[in-house]
Design goal:
Chains A, B: Its EC number is 3.2.1.52. The structure is a homodimer. Chain A is of the alpha/beta class. Helix content of chain A is about 35%, strand content about 20%. In chain A, strand 7, helix 3 and strand 8 form a beta-alpha-beta unit. The radius of gyration of chain A is 24 Å and the shape is elongated.
């Protein structure tokens, strides 16, 4: 399927500048003026597709994107006129899952109507994004470079995610919706909502209303059911799944604000570091039936609210000392000598994963659940690998599916220094530059073909100890776009050429300026002079 | 003068939370309700002071600042009521210079009118900022904690600056004005405007209009004379001097766009690194009379436009290879065997500094002018030390005044990785955290009392290769506030106690949230939970 890619010019970009780069792009050498670029569908029953078409027609109507390197160029000669684009979708099934087919084929003629064909409505959205990126403005004219254009495109990885932690610091709903927009501009398809943590519980619970009443930072720093439903709907209209994470049994201090009796090691001070990765300490008390019941019921509630088939149960950074230090746990273990902290934890996970299965959902977990407990999660569980790159081959060697999120490459919060009021670096320094992110290969050191197939995704993460609404866009963008390209397009062109950061720089400049034009405050990569003078700001 | 400082409570902050901390703060234990906080002046002739009073009255009227740790506290009992504040200024001279007296004395009684006394109108502004920071809101009430309060305050360093590079990337006028506001909230008093560089020449020139016509990024990316005058006026109303920098003879590629004949090594590619610290290369051709005449005339023009007594001539990162490689320079040197590239450079500087002196101004220069050429600048020249900490003692040992701007502590752009499309760190990694900045002592390793007096200032710098309007506030704040405190207050309390970052954390949280409330998108230091729970997020 992946035939020869017309290698995108490293410097001149005489042709289309699409991010992420399509699998196949064959283009001509003429320029087509835009008479009308409006999108229509031949037959349309899906409201979600209809919404996406309206959205892209608005983008197309309002956007006048001039690539920075074209800033002083006049309009070229045109040899044809575009009169619109029509979409054909094989089926209008609105289901969105890991298995959704996102492929599309796009043809833009020298003159006439462009044609987009996709198997699913979500593939059609990817094609519309590509189409919107073909349009260039210059000297008052809009046109498409290098027609005719033939594009065949589909993602390399099924799960291309972005994690946002809304618990360490809160983000207003608008920030999340804007982030979903930005994700769609980069063909990302999973919003991993790390919604709660020790520091706050911002999401409404109907079973346990005190969770958010006492756990949210403020009445106006909460996500109501309606808010969550709006996020899910907004995401779906952009082909983005929302995977919620309810991290347990660690990272749960905020639960203790309303339910102290089911907790262990609640906010131990000043030696919190014996009990938790960061303050405040607190874990569900796995020796207590009431804690297990709480966790199961809570999962049951949120598995209804969050409609995606995957439900993330956390499981990272569990601290055994927290329980060993707990008098109730000690009493329980003394009365039950066949048990141990470890066996209690296994039992806790078994109950949790049953609760997820009872909802016909697939569990997702941080890698410690697999590697650092005696528990063997169900084989279909998706393991998120973060500790280092080596976690990925280890995970797939065990026959589990892996989402690659190594802190060393994909943690967007790193490099801001320590945050505990002492000078020093952060544990995951340095800052992950877009080059660093782009160079990372989730499949590195995995040669077995079956094991390679188990690497189903990649995910960048923004943990929010040092981020909030003031800095969100710039922390995420354009660096998340670097992973968006490598996870959609891979790093190897069809002709076997491994793309370098030097080669993609100009396209990423374009994508960054395009995003700024669309209201995303993505940070600049270089002086504007460099963006305007392709190739002039490279290491000799 | 510096009597015992009532040590600010490390955790509880039962009393005032002022940033930067005053030299002397003696306070009581009662709380005073705010009846009126409006500021009046006993006698008022200065329009600048009148503008400052109007500004602070607006801030006072609109601000309802609740320190994060007070979020859930109700209003305390009040034992008195504030009925306003009155200012007495010894003289209403509006001159603003390095020697301006910024001291003030502020008294807030348990009941009645607060009194602010200052020697100058600019000291009065510092006192009004302090006064505005005393006001706290809680449960619908505004009050002042810990009255009666007596404050005596004055800066340790005369020059407390912030450098903004508006050439690598452009900042709209509003960004600069907002930055001046933020500076005034932190008692900074010098805006070092690194206005031009190789990448662009955004400032209007009347003598050489093609400079900005060809050198600015775009017609709407320029600072007109009126814009510059607005910046200077806006700054003066906040007690901030504007020191312009016209960096020469290096960092001048943008001049070459309109005046290629007076340039050397213009945009050498791809081996720009032989000729410049970063692309594009280009230096004024010091062998050409026309280049010297241009530089002198240009300095003459801008020394008129920029009213401050200090004029920065740059002089950093001059590259001798650029000239040695220039055929015109070679021809000149062949015809003038008594000359050398070095002697030409000395001659160039002599002419430049004469042009500055002719305008009755004091020159300011990057340290290379002093240390890396044969030129001896006039003794009153202010030397900016940036290469490392050791540059500061070296400078004052030579009898020159030093502004401390070591890249290792005060460069706010560092830590964002390389920007030349190759993975790798930046030359000045890591990121300078606020703790790092706070811990730096400009006077380190200088024991001689006379030499210590020559360290007249400190300056943080934001070079803009990887910054523009999208990220400005968060790159600057609250980190610049860390230097604002150490340069205003020093690091040692009157009782000899050296403040630690642990101790000042909570006040800095307050200052950060106060700034966000005033419209400055300063980045968060920690999870909000930490800001609300003083002392709970420290390294054990």
């Amino acid at each position: 399927m992946r035939s020869a890619l017309a290698v995108l010019g490293m410097l001149s970009l005489a042709t289309a500048s699409i991010w992420p780069v399509p699998s196949v792009l064959v283009n001509g050498t003429t320029n087509t003026a835009v008479g009308s670029a409006q999108i229509t569908a031949w037959y349309l029953s899906s409201p979600i597709l209809a919404a996406a078409i309206r959205r892209y027609n608005m983008i197309i109507e309002s956007e006048a994107f001039t690539p920075p390197a074209d800033y002083d160029k006049v309009a070229p000669n045109f040899e044809g006129t575009l009169t619109g684009m029509s979409i054909v979708v094989d089926h209008e099934d609105e289901a969105l899952s890991l298995d959704t087919d996102e492929s599309y084929v796009l043809d833009v003629p020298v003159s006439g109507v462009a044609k987009l064909r996709a198997k699913s409505i979500y593939g059609a959205m990817r094609g519309m994004e590509t189409y919107s990126q073909l349009l260039v403005s210059r000297g008052g004219f809009r046109f498409i470079k290098g027609t005719p254009i033939h594009i065949e495109d589909r993602p390399m990885l099924q799960h291309r995610g972005l994690l946002l932690d809304t618990a360490r610091n809160y983000y207003p709903l608008g920030d999340i919706l804007r982030t979903l927009d930005a994700m769609s501009f980069n063909k990302l398809n999973v919003f991993h909502w790390h919604i709660v943590d020790s520091q706050s519980w911002p999401v409404e619970s109907k079973s346990f209303p005190n969770l958010q009443k006492q756990g949210a930072y403020a009445p106006n720093m909460q996500y109501s059911y309606e808010d969550v439903q709006e996020v899910i709907e907004y995401a779906r209209e952009r082909g983005i799944r929302v995977i919620p994470e309810f991290d347990m049994p660690g990272h749960t201090y905020a639960v203790g604000l309303s339910k102290p009796k089911i907790m262990s090691c609640l906010n131990k001070q000043p030696n919190w570091d014996k009990f938790a990765a960061e303050p405040p300490s607190g874990q569900l008390n796995i020796a207590k039936r009431a804690a297990l019941d709480f966790a199961s019921k809570m999962v049951g509630e949120y598995a209804q609210l969050f409609t995606d088939n995957v439900f993330h149960l956390g499981g990272d950074e569990v601290n055994l000392e927290c329980w060993k230090d707990d008098p109730d746990v000690s009493t329980y273990l003394a009365a039950n000598p066949e048990e141990s902290v470890e066996s209690l934890l296994v039992n806790f996970y078994a109950k949790l994963y049953s609760a997820v299965s009872a909802q016909n959902k697939t569990g997702m977990a941080w890698e410690e659940t697999l590697f650092r407990t005696g528990y063997a999660p169900p084989k279909k569980t998706i393991i998120q690998s973060w500790i280092d790159q080596a976690s990925i081959p280890k995970t797939v060697a065990k026959g589990y599916r892996s989402i690659a999120s190594p802190a060393s490459a994909y943690y967007l919060d790193c490099g801001h220094g320590a945050w505990l009021a002492t000078a020093g670096n952060s544990w995951c320094d340095p800052f992950k530059t877009w080059m660093h992110i782009y160079n990372f290969d989730p499949l590195a050191n995995i040669t077995n073909v079956e094991q390679r197939k188990l690497v189903i995704g990649a995910e960048v993460a923004l943990w929010s100890e040092q981020s909030d609404s003031t800095v969100l866009d710039a922390r995420l963008w354009p660096r998340a776009a670097a992973m968006a390209e490598t996870s959609w397009s891979g790093k190897v062109n069809a002709n076997g050429h491994v793309r370098t950061t030097k080669e993609v720089l100009q396209r990423l400049h374009n994508q960054r300026f395009r995003m700024v034009g669309r209201g995303i405050m993505a940070e600049p990569l270089q002086p504007l002079w460099c963006a305007r003078n392709p190739g002039a700001c490279l290491v000799p």
